[in-house]
Amino acid sequence: xxxxxFNASGTQTFLGDVVNLRLAWASSSMTFDLFSSGNGWxxxxxxxxxxxxxSYVYPRVLLMQSTSNLEDVIRGIHATTLALNMRMLTQYCWxxxxxxxxxxxxxxxxxxxxxxDADNAAVHLESLLRNVVWSDMVSxxxxxxxxxxxxxxxxVSEFPHGPAWLQSVHDxxxxxxxxxxxxxxxxxxxxxxxxxxxxQPGVDETITIQNALGMxxxxxxxxxxxxxxxxxxxxxxxxxxxxxxxxxxxxxxxxLVRNTTxxxxxxxxxxxxxxxxxxxxxxxxxxxxxxxxxxxxxVVPAPASLVTAFAEFSTAFAVALHADSTLVSFVTESTDxxxxxxxxxxxxxxxxxxxxxxxxxxxxxxxxxxESFGFDDACLAQNELAVxxxxxxxxxALIGAQGMASLCSGGVACQEVLSxxxxxxxxxxxxxxxxxxxxxxxxxxxxxxxxxxxxxITSGNLLFLTQSLVTNxxxxxxxxxxxxxxxxxxxxxxxxLFQGDVDxxxxxxxxxxxxxxxxxxxxxxxxxxxxxxYLNLYISGMLAVATSFILFHAxxxxxxxxxxxxxxxxxxxxxxxxxxxxxxxxxxxxxxxLSTSCVSFTNQSALTQLAWNHMPVCNTAEExxx
Length: 626
Known about the structure:
626 residues, alpha+beta, 3 domains, 17 strands, 42% helix, disordered C terminus
């Protein structure tokens, strides 16, 4: 790369941290100045063990968010086996793009599909059928009277245009561009898969660095492996997968296609197959959201107003640290603390709590508020609701809550981190632009909440409790809510919209652990630079030897040297003692040195950033002379 002092644990890890933060909330391509004081990072990169902290949420968002890049989706389908394509966990709404053959489990969900997913190609089975090798379908799911035929084909064939449509999807794929055009012509202009925790998506991401010569080098940014979760798949309560759907229908000789002779009008069968039992959590979920087996879960991206507020905060925060080194000391010396917050409306001795996740239905009543749902929650423990406070996320929260925070009930560690955050807030909170951005963002996140399944001990009534993260009231909880929003933006948490036949709710998850990733030093090419370095040392050494002989001869009494001849030294001695090829390499090295910017990886009072450096005049003159 010809980047002096570039290494894996230092510069590459720093670049990864900066870029990963922006990728966490960037919805499209973006540009930013790496050398801006707003891109400083409070972290020690001097250790060989320095590593990036990767979020497992990131690959899930990549895979499950709505996208209009249909070409990429189609290429993905063709790069995946039929078995895995059938396990996309899509809860289909229609068999065809023209919406003639309905597949939703319930009448209410069918209407919900029409209202909210009519343009989503993923909920149309045709998007898959057109892009698989039909002989693979036949060998896996049978032909006439096989699994697919009983569950889908026979029902579709009862309609006037059904047989023709079935024939049309057999090996229909021509090329990616033609297929994408067909989808869009049918009104399927986007693609979104449901949120699920059957498997953790993997991602292998790189960044490309280009130097002044136009040479490019790819360096690892993320490496998160795919992981099948097996029995830890708790979201199967929401929907248990299309492969199970057609197998279940086949076993009973029923069709999944609505309004056909073999379709069962009894929607209870799907609820029973989804499971959930009859406990308090399942009972409340069915009454408040709708039946299991027919609940849609969708990843919710952070609204643009919140992203803008966070970006402005991040820049202002880094600039403030750059301007005042004492603030850096406050941040580095503060210690994160875990608190167990409880909304005021939930703080009642008459309440018993079963849990905060609709995916965990076996909870026992306890006297403390419990964690929200989580991708990695296997429902093996009832953990108390917890939030980690740091100086950074608390400063962010104080701006959102306009300086009001009652988070610490006597804890010394909590008071210390709150005091540090208050100092940071005093430097940032007075900025009118920042305050107005936070106010605008608050209105766009009003629906994001926590939930809790509870019971009134006195009356015995079951309760579905909700608490918005941010309210319009002067509620001390708002500061906690803004900490949650900060965690969402840095992908320590995720937000999912759960849509049922009765109602919908947007819930923020519990906090997730990160994955440590240390880039490999072997990825950074160094041999070419080392060869050029040694070659230039050899060239300089040979010229030094020649110079020594000439000077020795010149000082002799009968040397007879003319001073002006020394100006021809490089041309004569270089071609004679070194060689023209080596001189060319030396000259090109000087050209590269002069045409390359001086970039330094600086650390001032624990604040790390990239900086431009002016090349010393003596160095420039030296290279020009050579």
